[in-house]
Write a structure and sequence with these properties.
Length: about 55
């Protein structure tokens, strides 16, 4: 007979991504949603971050 395959389980998320990897993926849609809902606040936040980096 045929020898059994060593590892027939090839699920893509057998080892799910770590929390540190999931956090940016979760934060991106929330940032887009915030920018769409509050464009003035998002622009002010970006200007504030840019000024803070420049100083």
């Amino acid at each position: 007979m045929y020898a059994p395959t060593p590892n027939p389980d090839h699920r893509p998320y057998r080892h799910p991504p770590s929390f540190a990897m999931m956090l940016p993926f979760a934060a991106l849609p929330l940032a887009v949603l915030f920018a769409a809902a509050f464009p003035t606040a998002a622009a002010g936040l970006l200007v504030g971050v840019a000024v803070g980096i420049a100083l």
